[in-house]
Structure formats: structure tokens, C-alpha cells
Amino acid sequence: MSNTSTELACLNIGNDTFECCTSEDPSSRACQAAFPAFSNGEDGILDKGCRDDFLTEDAPGCIAGCQRLGLLYGSYLQDGDINASGRGPIERFASCVNVPAIAKAKAKAPDSLPEGFMAQARHIEDVTDDGLVNVTSAVWTSRKKKGRAKYTSRPSNQPEEQALKTPSNEPGEGEGIAPTASGASTEQETDSLWYILLEEFHKTQCLFVATLMIASLTLHIYGHDMLQNFLLMPISLNGILPVAFTYFLLVSHNSNIRSPSGFGLAALTVIVYALSSVVYWSLYAQFLPFSSNTSTPGIFSAVSSSLSAIPACGHYSAFALCPKIPAYQASLGDIEGAGDKLLVLTPVIWAFSTVVLLALLASQFRYYYYHWRRRRLHHEHQHDEEDFKSAAAVFRPPWVGRQTTEAAASHASKRIRGSIISLTFSEVAYIVATMAFLAGMGMQLSLLSVPWTLELVDPDGWSFGQVVAVTIWVPPLVELLYEFEQKRRRRRERRAKRIASSELTTA
Asked: Which residue ranges does UniProt annotate as crossing the membrane (predicted)?
């Protein structure tokens, strides 16, 4: 495109049929569709969106109407006819998104313009820079992320063509909403399903573990029943490492968890983790007196007493009093080995999980505090945009890069050419933490095998608790299948709408 060419309007923004009309080629198909000759009797790009029902007393012109989100994304008024195409918001957006470019072209008055250009430009009156800024903000700025602050300092022309062809992840989640017209990509939808499964799994896990921990507290865990301790201590770790691991994955892969809407999930995680920690350390304290007794097999004696000192036997027996009977010496090694595992491995698992969880919570707190501080700065400087920008620049979160555009591009090119050395600190930390979590999961699996090693439970017999422990995971899997089917249905609907829109455009 030459320097003398002026971009006038763009059609089918967000679709594969995206094209723009320029003053360099006023006879192109895009120009004929956007600015049809009056003799053709067809509606142009602004005729469709700036209809009479789009204009109100408060917003009498096209520029004023395009600044009103309620009008911009509302439906057409209908009198009696219940049939509708649903194209009201689509046509209004298609008109309003081109208003800044048409207004600028009208002011420049290029040498070559389409025949019907001025017929469309008549819809644009009382042009001001503030008005064009507000129109640009309404059609391209996501209010969900930007809030009320206006970060646009001047009216923009059309975005780059390649950017418009790239679909966003969710409606209202990027710098603009038009790219979502073609829908999210298959890869993005797969990521969304992964987040849904992981989040539902985490919620189910937390609720299940919380129930187990409350039930454990009712079993008088502060007594010296070593059999009970051997069974419950590995189970208590289910609320430690797995909970911290899934929350780590959620925060690492989904930034929405750090938004205020993710506070409930953080609170649930902390409550379950605290309950599990109370149960774990209460059980761990019961092992310490026996672990310090090196002259006799203390843990073995305690387990023996738990097995035989029952009320029917007077709370003691020869087996309990004589732990060194040769017939039972074979069990000594297994019990002492299991006790050593519980005494050595479990504190390591708890310490690592706690450090990671505290780091995640600190990151979230910093994120909340940053946005609270930024909103406060905007409130203090809401009448002076430059003061707000300068004040906000002083307080920025540590994860926001401070590189210039050239430095960022250079860094990106180096990373493409580089090896593992070019990984950022956060990526290295993520990989190391994930590997450590996987190692911890291996440790925990070895601890969960302790009851089977000591033959305290029958792996072939399914009790009431085992049935509940398995069936509790059915709802998240059912919801995943449901979401998967919903995604497929929405993809089919979007594909059908794109085909219908393309046919209407060509017609």
C-alpha cells in the first residue's frame, strides 16, 4: 500500500473473507460493497448500522450512537413481525468500527474516492477527536479488562489486517471483540476443556478431603492407636500435596484464577489445606515418642498393643507384652520400615507443598493489591489522563515487562534460536516445581501402600468408604463430557453462522 493510499472501510472483520477498501482502488469489490452507488439502491456500510432506530434523542447521530454500548450491541426494534435475522448488533458493529476511518478520510478528502463514499459520509456529523476516541473505545476496547479507564489517547484507524484475522479466546477478552466472530480455535477450546476438568477435579478433591479430615478429627486421633495412625497419616497427605499441585497448575495455566472471581477457589484451598495440616501434625506427634526409643522396637510394640490390647482381652495380652516372640519377628522389619517412611518422607512432602502454596497465595495477594492500587490511582487522577498514566507507571506489578519494543523483539528472536538456556526464570521455576511435585507424588504413593504392605486392609475387598472414594470422581468426568459436547455444538453453530453470513455478504 502506497503512502498516498487511505484506508476507508473494512468488511467481514474477524472472518476469513476479511477485506478492506482503500482510496488506491476505489473500484474494488470491497469499495463497491461498502460504498455502493446511489443508483444501485443498495444500503452502504453506514446505512445498515446508522438506521433510524439506532438514533435516539440522547444520541441523534451516528458518532453519538456508536459511543453508547446499549445502542451499539442492542437488537433492532420490531413492530409485529416476530421473525428476525439477529443481525442488528452485527451490522451496527460493522458500521461503528469503520466510523473513525471514514471520518478521517472525509476530512482528508483524497483524490480518488468510491462513487458512493459521500452518500455514506453524510451519516457522520459533528466530528470531534473526543467523539472518535470514544467510538474507538466502544468497539475495540474490552471493558471487562480495562474497566472505566480510557487508555486510548487518539482515534485509531483500522487495526492491522493480520490481527483482525486472528480469533480471540473468549468474547470480550482481548483488545477487541470483532475477532471472536469466527470463534475460538480448536486448540484454545481444548485448553478450555482442560481448565474445566482441572478446576472441577480440584473442587471435588477439596470437598472430599475436607470430609475425610473432619471425619478423622472425630476418631480421637490424639490417642495412641498406632494402627489408626498408620492408616490415617498417608490419607491426611491427600489434602496436602495433591491439593497444592492442582492449585499450582490452575494458577500457572489460567490467569483468571488470580482475578477476584478466583478468590473462592483460593479460600477453599486454604481451608482444606489447613484442616489436612492439623490432622497430619496431630498424627505425626504420636510417632515421635516411639521414634526416640532406640533400645526397643517402640513402633512395633505400639502396633502390637493396638492389635491385641482390646477390651475383650483386658486391654493386654502376652503378644502385647512380649513383642520379641520369634513367630512375630518377621513383621518387625516391615513395621519399622513403614514407620521410618512416615517419619522421614511426610515432613518433606508437607514442607515443599507449604512453600509452593504460600508462594502462590503471595502472588495472588500481590495481584489483588496491584489492581486495588491501580483503581485507587485512577480514581484520584480520573480528570487528568496523563497524571493517571504517570502515577500508574510508578506502581506496576513485577511480572509486567519493562522492555522496549525493540528489546522485546530481540529477546523473542533469541529465544526462537536458543536452547534451554534461553528459558525465562518463571519457566525454569515451573519445570522444576512440576518435577518436584511428581517426585512427591511418587513418595506419597509409596506411603499409601503402607496399609497394604502391613496387610491392614484387604485390597480385593471393597468397603463402603472405598466405593465412595471412587464414585466421588464421577461428577467431574460427566461434566467434562457435557462441556465437550457443548463445545462441539457451539462450533457447529458458529460454522453455520459464518457460512450464512458469507452467503448474505456475497448476495
From this structure: 206-224, 230-250, 262-283, 348-369, 420-441, 461-482
Of 353, 262, 443, nearest to 253 by C-alpha is 262
CA distances from 83 to 49, 52, 67, 79, 265 (A): 19, 19, 28, 10, 44
Lookup: cell for 254? 489460567
Q: What pLDDT score was predicted for residue 454?
A: 59
Chain segment 327-373, per-residue pLDDT in tens: 444 455 555 566 667 777 888 889 999 998 998 888 877 777 776 77
Q: How far apart are CA 381 and CA 371, in angstroms?
A: 15
Pick from 462, 501, 493, 500: nearest CA to 184: 493
Q: For residue 362, give the amino acid letter.
A: A
Which stretches of the chain score pLDDT less than 70? 1-5, 14, 16, 38-41, 51-60, 70-71, 73-87, 110-111, 141-193, 220-227, 254-262, 288-340, 371, 374-375, 377-424, 448-466, 503-507
- Contact assessment for residue 7 and residue 22, using Cβ atoms and an 8 Å cutoff: yes
| 8 A C-beta contact, residue 35 and residue 112 | no
Kindly state the cell numbers that stand for 445.
504413593
Alpha-carbon distances, residue 434 vs 124, 439, 448 (angstroms): 57, 9, 21
Count the Cβ atoms, other than its own, within 10 Å of residue 174: 20
Cα–Cα distance measured from residue 163 to residue 182, given in angstroms and rounded to the nearest whole number: 13
Enter the DSSP assignment of 147.
Answer: T
Tally the C-alpha atoms within 13 A of residue 96's C-alpha that lie toward its C-beta. Answer: 33
Task: Judge contact between 15 and 498, C-beta under 8 A.
Answer: yes
Give the pLDDT of residue 275.
92
Q: Among candidates 265, 274, 245, 271, which has minimal Cα distance to 203?
A: 265
